[in-house]
Each structure stands twice: as structure tokens, then as C-alpha cells.
Amino acid sequence: MTLLDTLGIDLPIIQAPMAGVSSPAMAAAVSNAGALGSIGVGATDAVGARAMIAAVRERSRRALNVNVFCHQPATADSALEAAWLERLRPHFERFGARPPSVLKEIYRSFLEDDAMLAALLADKPHVVSFHFGVPSAGRIRALREAGIVLLASVTNVADGRLVVKAGVQAVVAQGIEAGGHRGIFDPDTEDDGLGTMALTRLLVRELDVPVIAAGGIMDGAGIAAALRLGAGAAQLGTAFIACAESDADAGYRHALAGDAANHTVMTRAISGRPARCLRNRFTEFGADVSPQQIPSYPIAYDAGKALNAAAKAMQEPGYGAQWAGQGAPLARKLPAAELVAALAAELSHALAERKLQTQP
């Protein structure tokens, strides 16, 4: 069985599950167009996840990917968190606001979220994908026994071997070019920063499960390049941010369409974990901060979201989590289904052109 058969799709295209951006309407449109639509539920609870899945199914009966966060639960440090809030205070005051008095762990990890597991087992999306790690053997066994296909993001070969041993059926090779949070399992360990193409080739050679290339891929030519390197499909996130169905706000869209798209940077200041973002006021602030000064993920994100809300209330969009990959300048403002059709046409052209070039 091919990867496309396993995933229940016609095209080797996966729309990345971007929490806060990938709406049910987007996922449904992508799935109906023959690719794999995805939603990210790591930023909501089981009730919210079930509502999102239901909203997709109102629009599509095709395969759906539901992504969960498998980070280690945060380690609270009241002194560190208080110092962080004081460091952010001048930025809050710039917008006539005060920082929160305390910070909390705003997202619950799937590693310990029994209600989320129960929701997924009840609703049975065709695919469940993991980010930041993998859950326990018992959770993986329960999901697989329910007939759910499992994917996991990895950033190096060692983690690829680990997730395959854990029982996932395909790995997402997340290159350093990718937008959003790095899928590294431990954010405090050294990150080799492997690019998408190098990582894809390494994983294809080392693993006996399909590999999905992710990071910096924005068009059919990029998808074709990934397939030629042995990937079974490509996952695209930034390419879908400008779609009409995206939940990205106006400031995010404006930044993506401007010069900031040429200057994505890795930052930890917004959420507490390394993530690639359009250069903005928050990333500029974070450039002068050491990782040791930032609270754990997602505790730091509580402060980041509060600061963004204060800034947006005063018409300043530059403190948002404007995640984007290095291919951001190639983003197109198209409805999701039209983008999938364009990607498919470009892919077909690139493969046909390559075939002609190699014929004697």
C-alpha cells in the first residue's frame, strides 16, 4: 500500500496542521480537493477539538489529519516567570496595559490529556499526527487499534528511529526552513538544524516507513524535488496562510505580503520554544534574550498572547506569533482548493519536464 492509499488522499500534498491558522473550513477544502487537510488541536481542549472535527465533517467526508502537541509538561518557576513579566512590562505599558500578575500553563500536553485521547478515539479522524515527541505506548496502541493512521514530526534521524519504534506509520521530516515551532523533542538540547532536503534523504535511507518532507516547500516544483529525493508526500504550511479560509488575522496577512516575508527568524521569546516567525517587534525584542531567561513552554506563551492582545487593541500587529517558513515570499493569496489545484498542476508539469529531460 502506498502512502497516499494509507492517508486516503489522491495527491502527495498535506496542508500543515497550524494551530490558530488551519481552520476547519481550510482543512475541508483541502481534503475535498484531493490532498490531506489538517487541523491543530494542541491549543484547545477535548471539547474544542471535537467541535473542530465536527466542523470539518460538516463540509467534507474525506480524510482528515488532527495534530496534537506531545511536549513535556511545563516546569513552573515563579521567580523566572516574575522576572520575565518585569522584562515585558515596558512593552505592555507602551500600549497602556499591565502584564498578567501570574502566568499559567495554557496548553495541556497530549502526553497526559486523557480527555483528548478519548475524543480522538470517539471521533476517529483518519490521521492523527504528533508534534514535539510521541505519547506513551498505551496511547499509540489505542489509536492504532481504532484504525487511526499515525504520523510524527522529527528533525533528526535519531528521533526518526525513535518514533518508528514507537509505532508511527510515517514521519514528517521537518527541516530548519519550516515555519512555526521546531519539532525538536527537547528544546534545551542542541539542534543540528538540518535542512528539509538533507533530512528527507537521511530519513529515506535510514527508516523503513514513508517520509513526508516539510519546510520551505511552497509550490509544485518544491513538491517534485521532495518526491525525487524519496519522500512520499510534502507538507506545506506557510503556503496556506494567505488562503481565504485561514484564521490568520489582518496584521499577520499584511506582514506575510510585505518585506518581513524575506526575513524569517527563529525565536523562543514568544512561546518558550524555538519557532520560525516573520521578523516583527516581538522577534526583535527576543534577539537580545537568552533561552535561560524565558519561562517554559507554554507558560511563556501566556505572556506572549497577553502582550499581543494589548498591542492589537492599539492597532499594533507586530507582537503576534506570525509563524512562517523561509519560503514565505512565495505565498499566494488563493482559496485553499484553488491553491491545491495549482500545486497539483505545477507538480505534474515539473515531473513531466523532468521526464522529458532524462529521456535519451
Main sheet overview: 8 strands, parallel
Spans of at least 5 consecutive residues with low confidence: none
What order do the helices and strands follow?
HEHEHEHHEHEHEEHEHEHEEHHH
What Rg, in angstroms, do the CA atoms define? 20 Å
Q: State the shape.
A: globular
What would CATH call the architecture of the largest domain?
Alpha-Beta Barrel
Output the number of helix runs: 13
Question: What fraction of residues sit in β-strands?
Answer: 5-15%
CATH class of the largest domain: Alpha Beta
Helix content: 25-40%
CATH-assigned homologous superfamily of the largest domain: Aldolase class I
In round numbers, the mean pLDDT is 97
Q: What is the CATH fold-level name of the largest domain?
A: TIM Barrel
- Oligomeric state of the chains present here: single chain
